[in-house]
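Sorry to interrupt, but I need a hand with the structure work. I would like you to pick a protein and set down its sequence and fold. Please put the record directly below this note.
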Amino acid sequence: MELVEPPKTANIGERVTFPGFEGEPDDVLNPKKKVWETLLVDLNTKENLVACYKDVPFTTSAGVCKVSSISNGTIR
């Protein structure tokens, strides 16, 4: 297990985005809708260690978020 890390030059508290998936976050996740559980199946890391949602990189203004060593893994 390892953490997904933003680029070192990313601003603290900056929102992570997914190009092509625009919108505002929900204020509260409704546990009856199982939103998080639905999203989990599409979270993974690629061979180049980039964290992705539906093959779209976790992105900040400073670049993409990565893991240290687990390629082609799942994110939980």
